[in-house]
What we know:
The structure holds 2 protein chains of 2 kinds. By secondary structure, chain A is of the alpha/beta class.
Amino acid sequence: MKFIYLDNLPINNKILLILKNAQYETCTDILLDSENKIKAKTKLETEDIQSLLVLISKTIYTENPKSALEIRNENQIEKLSLGDKILNKVLGGGLPTKSGIIEIVGESAVGKSQLALQLCLMVQLPKHLGGLKGDALYLTTETFYSNRLETLKYYFMLKYGKYFEYDPCQHIFVETLIDLEMQQHYLYYYLPNILEKLPNIRLIIIDSIAFNFRGENNILSFQERAKILTEIAVRLKEISDKKNLIVICINQVSDYINDNNNKLSNEKVPTLGLTWSNCINMRIELSRNSINYTDNDEFVHKTQPEIERILKVIHSSYMPYSKCKFIIRDDGIKGII
Amino acid sequence: MDIFNRSITTLNINSDIKAKLLKLSICNINDLKYFTPTKLAEEINIPVILAESIFEQINYDNIKPISGLELYTNELKKINSIQTFCKALDNMLEGVTVNGIPLGKITEFCGPPGIGKTQLGIQLSVNVQIPKMCKGIEGKAIFIDTEGSFMIERVIQIANSTVDYIKENYPNYKNDSFNLNSILSNIQYFRVHDFQEQIALINILENYIISDSMIKVIVIDSIAFHFRQTFSSMSLRTQILNNIAQILMKIADKYNIAIVIMNQMTMKFQRMKEDPANKEESLLVPALGESWGHASTNRFILSTTDDQMIRKIFLQKSPNNKQGIAYYQITNDGVRDV
C-alpha cells in the first residue's frame, strides 16, 4: 500500500497549511474522510476539496484501465504444467500465473507436498515443455522433505537432464517460518525484498498456511486471526498480479462437527474457515479413494499397494467443477483414467 | 406550514453569506421579499450571480411535480435492463420495462466462494453489449476486480457462447459487429490491490464514465474483500462504505447505469431466544454489516443446493418485486437456466 505525504503533491501552499492544521498528513488520511467531513474540518470551498480529492485519487490509483482485448493481446498469463497430461487437462492446461492465491487442500499424507515439490521442478523447465523457466521459493512451516525432493529430482533429471546445466535443487529456495510472527514478518517485509533480489522466482509455495495458526500457542481471537489472514491474502494477491507469478498455499483439513447432534461426520473441511475461503481464487482438493489401484504395468516395481487418490477443482473462476484420479509413484504424481 | 417561514439557514448557501444575512436580521424567506438580487448583492457585498442563485432557490413557482402518468410513459420509452440468460432470474425482477438487472439501480449479489459471482459479473459485462435489435442495450462495461479472479480465458469462452446464442436465437441479425473482438474491447478492466486504491478509484470513476457515455454497467467484484478485516474501527469502515454507496448511487442515477456489486458472506453468531439452553447458532449473512444492506436497491443471496451443479438464488430485497427463489447453473457457456 502506498503512503504518500501531502507535501509531495502539487498542492497550493495555503491549502496545504490548512490541511495540516486539520491533522491531515498523508493521502490516506484524506481518502478515509468524506467530502463533508473534510469540509467541516478545514472550511475549504467545495470546489477546492473536489479537485483535491481527484488529485489525490489519481496519485493513488495510477493504473490505466485496460480493455479485455488488450489483456488478451498482451497474453501475459502463462500456464505451469503439472507434468502429467491427465492432471493438466483437469486444470485447463496447468496452473495460471497472475491468478491470485491457489489453494491445495487435503488430509495429511495425501500428496500435497509431493505435488508442490513436483511443481518446484517443473517451473524450471523451458516454456515449450510447460515450465516457466523460473525459480521456486518454498516457504515451509513444517519440515522440508529434502530426501523426497532428491528422489523426485533423480527421475526428473532422467527425463529432462539435457535441459539443465545446473542442479535444479539449487534453484529451489527454502525458508522455514517457525512461528506466526515470523510468517507475518516474512510475508509482509522480506518477501518483496527477496523478489527484488531474485527476480527469476515464478512460483511461491507456502506449506502450510494454516500450521502456525493451529498451534497450541494460538491465543488469537477469531477477529484477530481473520484480520491477519486477509492482510496476508491482500499482499500475496498483489505480488501474484504485479510480478506475474503463481502463489500456492497448502492448507490442511479438519473434521466437520455437525451442529445438530454434535457428532463427528465423515466430512472434512478446509481449515481457517470462511474468511480464508473468501480470500482464495482457486481451490484444489486432494483426497484418498478407499480402493487400491491395480494395473498390469509390470515395468514399475511396486513395493506396496498403490492407493488411488482424487484431485478435484472445487472452485475457480475459469474452470468448472472437475476431478480426476491419480496415484503417487517415485517419479511423481500420475493421473489415471 | 407556510413555506415563507422557511429559515434561511436551511438554504444551500455558504455559511459566510448566511451569517451576513442574519446580521441584516434576514431570518426567513419572507424577509427576502423586499430585496431584488442586485440590491441584496450590494447590501451584503457578494457577486450578483450568487445573489441570483439564492433567489432561484426560493422561487417556488418553478417547481412542478411530474405526474405519475408522465413518469410511466417516460419509463416505457427505454429498455431498462440487462438480461442474464437465466430467465428465471430475469423474471424475478420483472417490471414495466425491466426484465433483468435494472439500469440506474444498484444490484447486489451475495454468496459464498465458488458460487458463481465472478461468472455472473462476466456474463453481465458481455450481455450488456447485446445489440438493440436482439433486445439488448448495446452498451459497454466496466469491470472492477478487487480479488484477482477475472480470467481472460473465461471471458473469451463466455463471449463466444454469447455470440453463438445471438446467432441461434436471432437468425435475422446479420450484422457482424457483435463479435469476440468487439465484446472484449468494450470491457474496461480495472484491478484494485488494496482498500486505498478502491476508494481512490471510486472517487475518479465518474471521469471515466463521462469520457465514454456508452458505459451501461459497472461490475465490482467484490466490494467486500478489502473491507473485511483491515479496519480497526468499525465506525470508520461504515463511514467509508456509506461514502462509496453514495457515490455509486449518484453515478447509477445520473448516468442511468446498472451497478452490480458482488459481496461475500460471513458468519454471524446469534443467541436463540426460544432455546432454554441459550445456545448460539451460526448464521450465514452478507458481509459488511447492517448499514451496507441499505446501499443496494435489489439484493440477491446465492447458495448451493444438494445438486453440485444447480444453485439457488433468493431475492431478499427489492422495492417493486416480491421475494422469491429461482435456480440457475453455471455451464461452460456461462450463466444459464436449469
